[in-house]
Amino acid sequence: MGLRTLIVTSDKIEYPHIRFYQKLEKKLKQAQRRLSKK
Fold first, then answer.
1. Angle at 15 between CA 24 and CA 21, to 5 degrees
2. What gap in Å lies between CA 7 and CA 18, rounded to an integer?
3. Using an 8 Å Cβ cutoff, are 3 and 17 in contact?
4. pLDDT block averages, 10 residues each, the chain of length 38
């Protein structure tokens, strides 16, 4: 279990936790590379 959202404003705008975003970005890059090789 981790912290996904760092801040949520009263307008319901969410600011993601940087480490969580970086992990997702890494997974996205890997998936894009796999697709481009096909």
1. 15
2. 11
3. yes
4. 75 80 85 88
| Residue appearing with tokens 């090789």 | 37
For residue 6, give the H/E element and its range.
Answer: strand 5-8
pTM: 0.47
Amino acid (one-letter) located at 21: Y
- Report in angstroms the alpha-carbon separations of 7 from 14, 15, 16, 20: 6, 5, 7, 13
CA-CA distance, 26 to 20, in Å (whole number)? 10
Look up residue 15 and give its DSSP letter: E
The neighbouring-strand residues paired with 15 are 7
Q: And the tokens for 27?
A: 């997974």
